[in-house]
Amino acid sequence: MIEGVYLMPVMNETDRDQLIQSAKFLFDKGFSLESSDEYSIRLRGEGIQFVLFYERYDEYSDIYIDFLPENDLYSVGWIACIAEGTTNIDYSKKLENLLAILDFIKNNYDEVIDIDYCKNMRQKIDRFIEDSKKKQKDSK
What is the value of pTM for the model shown? Predict the structure, then answer.
């Protein structure tokens, strides 16, 4: 361990197995397990990669969708929050957060794998963040 740096809990084998089982619908859609380690699982499909990860230095987990030909990456966690109007998240529950995001992907698969949908959601996320900053500033 680097002095002064605390690494957050890793993705243990039980977590990894549970996540892979919950992602079975992606395997059914032609995705395959590209790699897996103590912090991430990479599932690759035709031109798309999902990266499920536990942040190493923070209490945070997320799933990114990477549109490989375009080299464009989006946070599905943020997309789910904005799409469902849920921004009150307990980030310390890394496994539960990833399972919820996988459920969102399963229920909204066609939208999530559409790069135009992700671009539109990124604009909504940016507006949400800007509005939140403005509200914080105005309340001081």
Answer: 0.87
